[in-house]
Amino acid sequence: MLVEQIYTGCLAQGAYYVESKGEAVIIDPLREIQPYLAKAESRGTKIKYVLETHFHADFVSGHVDLAKASGARIVFGPNAETTYDAYIAQDGEELRVGGVTIKVLHTPGHTMESTTYLLQDENGKDYALFSGDTLFIGDVGRPDLAAKSELTQEQLASHLYESLRDKIMPLGDDVLVYPAHGAGSACGKNMSKETVDTLGHQKETNYVLRADMTKDEFVKEVTHGLTPPPSYFPLNVLMNKQGYGNIADVLEKGLQALDSEAFEAAANKTSALVLDTRKPEDFAQGFIPNAINIGIDGGFAPWVGTLIPDIKQQILLVTEEGREEEVVTRLARVGYDYSIGYLKGGFAAWQNAGKETDSITSISPTEFEQRYRQDSTLKVVDVRKPSEYLSEHVETASNAPLDNLNDYLAEIPKDQEVFLHCAGGYRSMIAASILKARGYDNLVNVLEGFRGISGTDVPRTAFVCPSTFFRQGAN
């Protein structure tokens, strides 16, 4: 028996390859399916099942394409309804894979079709639980993401409480827990950076598995402090339920190399968004006017999903040379299938063609300190989350969280120099590019963000937030 976790850090997502005696299953695969096919082929293994723990909201699963390419059968748990061919397993049903058994455990709560899969080894011993978004390491799946659910988040949380108590907690302490996500995912709020643990250790440390916890306490704690999910989540759920275009076609369309003239013509003739995925510091030095910067080396996919509300938005790409396919693929992972080409030769080609460019002023934390000491009335805008801002912030700074930046435009002056910062410089450059495209010309980005500022003597204010049961999750 072989169990392999295939973890994708930029999505904080875990897919799984399980193999026994020439047969394999893939659990919650990403959209690019070639690595799974190559893995099975290299080992002379046939993929028998593609198991889905639920209809994912934060990424488009590869189940449809993988089943077509491998001949495997797609499996969901009870309550799942699809427009494509899939097997809807019953609670308690057992699937044979080589010499091992995978038991279907219906665990509604995160969504009503949510299902976990219990792997039993060749001797029939419970070995591992593939818990999807039902149970994370340190947390539990949030109960407010079920698309078009007739149930309230409190009712879903109540179902989740029962699922954990009736189906998961009775399992042995030595059972391994393999979740669908880790720290950084928006599907939970308190996830550990660890991606696997024993169930016994989770019973000791995970707040949702406290033995003396009542249902009312569970519902209150699980629903407390939930922030609105990214707008693309319901759209991804629909794609996962109804199917989607082949990723090969998406790549072919997105990987059209356009010279500067063709790129400019496409930008002028369509409503395409120019998305620049270079490093923030490179973008600041020069970019195509009205381009939006979301760096590929940061929290790329979640921020694309948060800030580009229409997954059918046409997109023109400016990337680092050689990373074009990576960018198109990572857009497709979250359902953005309408990339229509990229700038051949990158931004340097645009410059060499003598095209118009723009830039954003950036300064060091030291220079910011000097400017602030000279004039403490500087307009400083902190684009971090409200919880980060409340923890500690520059004394006179206002908070305009990047997630909802459009709601704060009226509070950001166009006729005054505005200093933007986040935690490390990634989000503030995204904000700067958005504001620049909306006609804000007096912007200054603080390099290194609050981490850099906190090493200076700039006055800061800290607020002690009301204590809750939750630890602050990693960002």
Mean pLDDT: 92
Main β-sheet, spatial strand arrangement = 1-2-3-4-5-6
Bin the strand percentage: 15-25%
Number of domains: 3
Helix percentage: 25-40%
Largest sheet: 6 strands, mixed
Distance linking N and C termini: 35 Å
Number of helices: 16
Overall geometric form: globular
Low-confidence stretches: 463-475
From the alpha carbons, calculate the radius of gyration and give it in angstroms: 24 Å
**CATH class bucket of the largest domain:** Alpha Beta
> The CATH topology of the largest domain is what?
Metallo-beta-lactamase, Chain A
Number of strands: 24
Provide the CATH architecture of the largest domain.
4-Layer Sandwich
Given helix and strand content, the structural type is alpha/beta
> Looking at this structure, what is the CATH superfamily of the largest domain?
Ribonuclease Z/Hydroxyacylglutathione hydrolase-like
Protein name: MBL fold metallo-hydrolase
Domain Rhodanese: 268-359, 374-462
GO molecular function: hydrolase activity; metal ion binding; sulfur dioxygenase activity
Keywords: Hydrolase, Metal-binding
Question: What do you see in this structure?
Answer:
One of its GO terms (molecular function) is hydrolase activity. This is MBL fold metallo-hydrolase. The structure is a single chain. The protein has 475 residues and is an alpha/beta fold. It folds into three domains: 2-235, 4-Layer Sandwich (Metallo-beta-lactamase, Chain A), CATH 3.60.15; 247-352, Oxidized Rhodanese, domain 1 (3-Layer(aba) Sandwich), CATH 3.40.250.10; 361-428 and 435-461, Rhodanese-like domain (Oxidized Rhodanese, domain 1, 3-Layer(aba) Sandwich). The chain has helices at residues 34-42, 63-70, 153-168, 199-205, 215-223, 233-242, 247-254, 260-269, 280-285, 300-307, 324-333, 346-352, 365-374, 386-391, 426-437, 449-453, and strands at 2-8, 13-20, 23-27, 46-51, 73-76, 87-88, 94-97, 100-106, 115-120, 126-132, 176-179, 197-198, 257-258, 273-276, 292-293, 315-318, 339-343, 361-363, 379-382, 393-394, 398-399, 418-421, 443-446, 460-461. Strands 1-2-3-4-5-6 form a six-stranded mixed sheet, with helices on one face. It has a six-stranded mixed sheet with strand order 7-8-9-10-11-12. A five-stranded parallel sheet has the order 13-17-16-14-15. α1 (34-42) links the parallel β3 and β4 (46-51). The protein is globular, with a radius of gyration of 24 Å.
